Amino acid sequence: MKKILLAAAVALAVSSTAFAQVADAFSSSLNDFLGEINTALPDNAVIGGTWSDAYIGQIVGIPPHFGIGIAAGVTSFPSKGFKDAMELTGTELPTDTLILPNVAVEGRIGGFILPFDIGLRVGTMPTMEVFGVKVDYLHYGADIRYALLKGGLVLPAVSVGLGYYHTDGSFNFPLTAGSTFGSSVPGVIADEKVNLGLDFATDVFELKAQVSKSFIVITPYAGVGAFMATSKSSYLLDSSVADVTDSKKDTVYGARVFGGFSFNVLVLKFDTTASYDVLTGNWGGNLGARIQL
After folding, report:
1. Helix H or strand E encompassing 85
2. Sign for the pseudo-dihedral over CA of 120, 260, 219, 287
3. Is the dihedral of CA 184, 187, 192, 193 positive or negative?
C-alpha cells in the first residue's frame, strides 16, 4: 500500500511539474513575442512617407509644389515566440515570420522662403476578420525635410529630415485549448474556446537623409535613416474562468537604408521603395501612386 501511495505521489509531483513547465513555457514564449512586436513595429511605422523626390520645391511658385496619393507597404515581422506559444496550445503555425501591412493616404506640400517641404500621412483600418483573425490598426505621421541641394539639370536633390510616426492596433486569435494546455494553464479549461488578444503601439522619431535625381520619366533615389522608438505591447488570454495577461515596454533603436525609383507620367508618379534595417534585420517594401505638381 505504501508503495502504491509513494508511486501516486511521485506521479502527481511529476505531473504537476510538467503542467507548471507548460504554463511557464507559454508565458515565456508570449513574453518573447511581445519583445519581437516592440522591435519590429517601428520598422513598419517608418516604411511609408518616402517619395522619390528628395525635395519637391516651394508652394509659392508656378506651378505650386504639392502632392497627394496613397501608399501600401509591408514589413517582415519575426514571430518565433508566438509560434512557440501556439504550439503549446495545440495550434501549428506554418512560419515564424509574419508580414505586417501599412496602408495610408499621403500628402506633401512645399515650403516658402526657405527650401523645405512637409509631409503628412494617415491610415486606419476598422476591425475586420481575416482568416478568422480580427485585426485593426491606426497609423499617422509627419515629417519635415530641408533641401541641402535643390537639384537641377546636373546636380541631384539632397535633403535631410526629421519625422514622427505612430502606429497602434490589435489582433484577436480564436483558439481551442488543447487538453494538456487547458489542464496546465490557470484559468483555462481543457478543450474550451479561448481568445488570445494582442495590443500594440509605437511612437517613432526618425532622422533621415535622401538623394534623388530625376531623368524625366524615372527618378531613382536612395537614403538612410536612424530612429528611436518607444514600443509597448500586451496580450490577454480570455477564458471562461479567468484572464491571463502580461505587457512589455521597450525603447528600440534602428538604422535603415532605403531606395527605389518612381515612374513619372506628367503629374502622375508611381513609387516603389525597398528598406532594410541593419540593426534588426527587418526588411520592408512600399508601393505608392500620387498626383504631384
Report:
1. helix 80-89
2. negative
3. negative
| Contact call for residues 101 and 75 (beta carbons, < 8 A) | no
| DSSP SS3 for 107 | strand
Query: Is the link from the previous residue into 63 a cis peptide, with omega within 30 of 0?
Result: yes
Q: What is the DSSP letter of 241?
A: S
Q: What is the pLDDT of residues 208-261, one digit of tens each?
A: 999 999 998 999 999 999 999 999 999 887 766 667 788 899 999 999 999 999
Q: Output the pTM of the full model.
A: 0.84
Helix (H), strand (E) at residue 179: helix 179-184
Enumerate domains of the chain plus CATH numbers: 2-292 (2.40.160.20)
Report how far residue 128's alpha carbon sits from residue 31's, in angstroms, rounded to the nearest whole number: 26
CA distances from 182 to 21, 101, 195, 197, 231 (A): 13, 33, 13, 17, 31
Q: Is 281 left (phi over 0), alpha (psi -120 to 50) or beta?
A: left
Query: In sequence order, what E strands does the chain have?
Result: 66-78, 97-110, 116-130, 133-150, 157-176, 193-212, 218-238, 243-265, 268-277, 283-292
Residue 238, Cβ density class (10 Å: 0-12 exposed, 13-18 middle, ≥19 buried): middle
Q: Which amino acid is at 172?
A: N
In this predicted model, what pLDDT tens digit does every residue of 139-196 receive, in sequence order? 999 999 999 999 888 899 999 999 999 999 888 887 776 655 655 666 666 666 777 8
**Which residue in this structure is represented by grid cell 514622427?**
164
